[in-house]
Design brief:
single chain; alpha/beta; Rossmann fold; 7-stranded mixed sheet; 9 helices; globular
């Protein structure tokens, strides 16, 4: 029997999946490829992608030549991942599964990873332990998470955009921070990997860069990024006139960042944590 919490989470991700695939997945594949390179993924290795979404980590892994198994709570996300894989002639096994309780034997994979997935788990430490459990001795675990939210351009721009109609808006609550930022401190990520029994743990912070043509594209990208964003916006009860004003402000910010022409590049810190079993 599926718990009410899992059913609700699944429904939320199913709902945003098409928008997420159209916006976030395509912009985050380069990061996925870099993370896999750092983790040492090579052709023929067996790789597990946990909370895979529609393939920002799985697709680059399959391109490398790994044998990829991708799991997610959302069957809609998995369907979109399969569509992406089919277009490229890639073979990826997909299974609907809760990353808190992986249905695999110990030592089933050479590498198990999660990009912007396990960081959202209500019981994140359990998710990290499960990643470690299913890799073989000598195998590796890879976790990619957001860093300091104050240094995330897309979040700063969103807050400044909403200020056009809600001057007192301060963004997501800081205490407690949204699940997306529970691993914002690299020392916390390091500690969780060690606590899961991993050795030779490294956590490196890199800068992810994403281009946006205008305010509407940025708004679209943020709103479809995860269920937290639309819930936050819904709570503001913006009218259509107010939403237009927000997007106009975002347009102004994008043009200023771009120097008046072309796309604007927004950056954010990302932690790449790797440990060996």
């Amino acid at each position: 029997m599926v718990s009410q919490d899992i059913a609700q989470t699944r429904a939320e991700w199913d709902r945003i999946a098409p928008g997420y695939d159209r916006t976030n997945t395509r912009t985050q594949m380069a990061l996925g490829a870099e993370a896999l390179r750092r983790a040492g993924l090579s052709p023929g290795m067996r790789f597990l992608d946990v909370a895979c979404g529609s393939g920002a980590l799985s697709i680059p892994a399959a391109r490398i030549g790994a044998s990829v198994v991708a799991i997610d709570l959302s069957p809609v996300m998995l369907s979109l991942l399969q569509e992406r894989a089919h277009r490229e002639g890639l073979a990826i096994e997909t299974r609907v599964m809760d990353g808190h309780a992986l249905e695999f034997e110990e030592g089933s994979f050479d590498l198990a990873g999660s990009q912007f997935g396990v960081m959202l788990f209500p019981d994140m430490p359990r998710g990290v332990r499960e990643l470690a459990r299913v890799v073989r001795e000598g195998g590796r675990v890879l976790i990619v998470t957001y860093g300091d939210p104050h240094a995330i351009d897309f979040l700063t721009f969103l807050i400044r955009g909403i200020h056009a109609v809600r001057p007192d808006f301060t963004g997501p609550p800081a205490d407690p921070a949204p699940l997306a930022f529970q691993l914002q401190d690299p020392t916390r990520l390091h500690r969780e990997l060690v606590a899961a029994g991993l050795a030779d743990v490294t956590v490196n912070t890199v800068t992810e860069a994403t281009e946006f043509q205008d305010g509407a594209e940025l708004w679209d990208w943020v709103i479809w990024s995860n269920p937290i964003a639309p819930a936050l916006v819904d709570s503001l009860e913006l009218t259509s006139v107010e939403l237009d004003a927000v997007i106009d402000r975002l347009d102004t910010l994008i043009r200023a960042r771009a120097g008046g022409t072309g796309p604007a590049t927004l950056t954010n810190p990302v932690h790449i944590g790797i440990g060996r079993k």
